[in-house]
Amino acid sequence: MCSLGVNLTINFKKKMKKSKKIISYISIIFCMFIFTFNASISLEIIEKVKDNFKNIKDFQADMNLKIDISYLNAPEKSGKIYFKQPNRTKIDIDGFSMLPKQGTGNFINEILSKDITIIENGTENLGNVSTTKVKIIPNNPSEDIAIATMWIDSKNFNVLKSEIITKKSGSYTVIIDYKLINNIYLPGEVKIKFSVPEFSLPKTMTGDFKDDKSKSKSKDGKTEGLVVINYTNYIVNKGLNDNVFNK
After folding, report:
1. DSSP per-residue codes, 187-214
2. Mapping DSSP to helix (H, G, I), strand (E, B) and coil, where does residue 105 land?
3. Any long-range contacts for 204-210 (C-beta under 8 Å, 24+ apart)?
4. Burial of 76 (0-12, 13-18, 19+ CB in 10 A)
5. In this predicted model, what pLDDT tens digit does every residue of 156-189 receive, in sequence order?
6. DSSP-derived secondary structure letter, 128
7. Alpha carbon distance 95, 187 (integer Å)
8. Distance between CA atoms of 220 and 33, rounded to whole angstroms?
9. Strands annotated E in the chain
10. For residue 211, what are the β-bridge partners?
């Protein structure tokens, strides 16, 4: 009788051990399924963002530029921007020839066109808009971008907000408010908040801007500031001549 009890106990333990292994395997398979499912959703969302961008064959627009850096007296600037697929951009502003590439909106497509790993990171409301939060990591270690986080409108698939951390060029937060023109979403206002290594602004960027000697530069080796760009009077997909970019 005692021997039978021992055998029953041993058999029970074996069955339990086998059951735990089966449960463990099922859990692993389930986790792999969830990861693959999320990756598939993320990839689908990214493809829809890229499709939105592909609808913009070319455009030109008026732009107004405001730069807010603590030690810089920077008057507002106005000019024009020209864009043509796949990546031709020209900024025409008197006394100002440099612009953070985040200001054109094309930077989103540049990031998404690289060899990247995409990780979905939940959902979040920006104002009254539901967004899907996605983290993007370049697979090429030579890329300056370490990681980018994008908040993508879950309905219209526009990137409403981006946080970009680079290895050498500082960090940027970009918020884009879109306009719907001819059924195409285009940037209406772009806000770029940046924190970059301390530097002397080149003449091509400062134009007639002047340092305010009464204001000190940052003490932690960083330059922080805000660029606000407004776009108006769009002309979209009218066949922009290549000569515009050669002038």
Report:
1. EEEEEEEEEEE--PPPHHHHTT-EE-TT
2. coil
3. 204/96, 204/97, 204/98, 205/96, 205/97, 205/98, 206/72, 206/74, 206/96, 207/77, 207/94, 207/95, 207/96, 207/97, 208/75, 208/95, 209/67, 209/72, 209/73, 209/74, 209/75, 210/72, 210/73
4. exposed
5. 999 999 999 989 888 889 999 999 999 999 999 9
6. T
7. 23
8. 46
9. 58-69, 72-73, 77-84, 88-93, 116-126, 129-138, 145-153, 159-166, 171-181, 184-197, 210-211, 222-236
10. 72
Q: How far is CA 161 from the centre of its chain?
A: 7
Residues in CB range of 43: below 8 A, 6 or more apart: 118
Do the Cβ atoms of 234 and 180 come closer than 8 Å?
no
Cα 105 to Cα 174: distance, rounded to the nearest angstrom: 9
CA separation for the pair 7, 234 (Å, rounded)? 83
- Interacting residues of 245 by C-beta distance below 8 A, sequence separation 6+: 82, 84, 88, 90
Distances (CA, A) of 136 to 5, 45, 93, 118: 58, 13, 33, 5
User: Torsion-angle region of residue 105: left (phi > 0), alpha (psi -120 to 50) or beta?
Assistant: left
Q: Of how many residues is the chain composed? A: 247
N-terminal to C-terminal alpha carbon distance within the chain:
100
pLDDT in tens, 2-22: 444 444 444 434 444 444 544
Q: pLDDT per residue over 20-61, tens digit each?
A: 544 444 343 333 333 333 445 678 888 999 999 989 999 999
In order of their start, the domains of the chain are 47-246 (2.50.20.10)
